[in-house]
Design brief:
CATH superfamily of the largest domain: HUPs
Main location: cytoplasm
Distance between the termini: 34 Å
Radius of gyration: 19 Å
Shape: globular
Structural class: alpha/beta
Largest sheet: 6 strands, parallel
Keywords: ATP-binding, Cytoplasm, Ligase, Nucleotide-binding, Pantothenate biosynthesis
CATH topology of the largest domain: Rossmann fold
Protein name: Pantothenate synthetase
Pfam family, one: Pantoate_ligase
Strand order of the largest sheet: 1-4-3-2-5-6
Number of helices: 11
Pathway: Cofactor biosynthesis; (R)-pantothenate biosynthesis; (R)-pantothenate from (R)-pantoate and beta-alanine: step 1/1
């Protein structure tokens, strides 16, 4: 596995691969890798001859400095996992490489900035958009792979690719879950045993809400979700929405293309999850 920390050697490598007729798959991550990330590598390997993963904890997408400071960093383990997964190359830039001067530009994604993650994490998607734009320019991938768990982030990146005319195909990959249903996430590493025992309540609630949504109005489903999670003192619900799976606009009546999205704190650790109303 090739390891790059600078832009020009990475781009020279990518150019050489292209000249030999190979397609480039890209999996951007912030490290603290788990089986969910590795599933993206696996899917990319099936579709592309070269798979590049990036590991970079991007400071501009954190609107909470404490969250940034506590974000897990497991670089040595990450590199071992990527090697075992058959990743072709990894790009591990520093802040100096990604932001050689203070960032001045800000991106606004319109309506997506006002709901769910956009509403509760102001500035987050501007940071995501900027770093993904930079990485796409550096890696120049034919295809980029993202997890469904960050469904709104995928919608943001889809808009970014459309509006800025990136020649990159986007692939949204299914959520990887633990045996008890908890969506795999780097933040799960921060859960202590007691918190970890509580965390599956989010997925369990989504499963119940999916059934309720077929039986009652959306407003009543939201009330039942609030009541369900209100019984668990360790859980603080931030939002629960039933939204169009593509536009992520909240809907008042269920439709085929709908997603149930949730964000909640387990004590001080913020987790998100979602399910499609119907299998897609």
């Amino acid at each position: 596995m090739h390891i790059f920390t600078e832009i020009h050697p990475l781009q020279s490598y990518v150019q050489a691969q292209r000249q030999s007729g190979k397609t480039i798959g890209f999996v951007p991550t912030m490290g603290a890798l788990h089986a969910g990330h590795l599933s993206l590598i696996s899917i990319a390997k099936k579709e592309c001859e070269v798979v590049i993963c990036s590991i970079y904890v991007n400071p501009t997408q954190f609107n909470n400095s404490n969250d940034l400071a506590k974000y897990p960093r497991t670089l040595e383990t990450d590199q071992h996992l990527l090697q075992e997964a058959g990743c072709t190359a990894v790009f591990i830039p520093s802040d100096r490489i990604m932001y050689p001067q203070p960032l001045q530009i800000k991106l606004n994604f319109g309506y997506l900035e006002t709901v769910m993650e956009g509403k509760f994490r102001p500035g987050h998607f501007s940071g995501v958009g900027v770093v993904v734009s930079k990485l796409f320019h550096m890696v120049m991938p034919d295809a980029a792979y993202f997890g469904q768990k960050d469904l709104q982030q995928f919608a943001i990146i889809r808009q970014l690719v459309t509006d800025l005319s990136f020649n990159t195909r986007l692939v949204c990959c299914p959520i990887s879950r633990e045996k008890d249903g908890l969506a795999m996430s780097s933040r799960n590493m921060r859960l202590n045993p007691a918190q970890r025992a509580v965390a599956p309540i989010l997925y369990q609630t989504l499963q119940k809400a999916r059934q309720w949504a077929l039986q009652m109005p959306v407003a009543e489903v939201k009330q039942k979700v609030e009541l369900q999670l209100g019984k668990v003192p360790e859980v603080k619900l931030e939002y629960f929405e039933i939204a169009d799976s593509i536009t992520l606009q909240p809907i008042e009546e269920v439709r085929n293309q709908a997603s149930l999205c949730i964000a909640a704190y387990i004590d001080d650790i913020r987790l998100i999850d979602n399910v499609f109303l119907f299998d897609e």
